[in-house]
Amino acid sequence: MSTGGFDPLGGDSGFEVYPQALRAATNEVFAARDRVTKFAQGDLAPMVLRDEDVGMIGVRSQIVPVFNAVVQSMREKSERGAERLTALAEALDKAADHYETQDEEDYRQLRSKEEGLN
User: Fold this and answer.
1) Across 4-22, average pLDDT
2) How far apart are CA 48 and CA 21, in angstroms?
3) CA 47 to CA 39: how far, in whole Å?
4) Is 59 strand, coil or helix?
């Protein structure tokens, strides 16, 4: 567990960071990314409407290109969302690395002080 961010004025930030909680959040975000990717590439990909699927009225109303454009837009937005979730998960993982390193350094300093007292 690390205390929160750096305060140049020497005050306490008032929060604590648990790297293992950040790692758990990272895993959840990656899982969400995987679900969004599956939706875009697995569930939406086969959703293609053809003229023969809608009959004469559907063809005349131009519903096929409208429907296919909507599905394509949903796929693109889902894929962009998955990319953003990846970036978020990587940032959480990087933060966890930072706080773990900080914890290790704090522990080394504490051990060093403890050894100096003995």
Assistant:
1) 64
2) 42
3) 11
4) helix
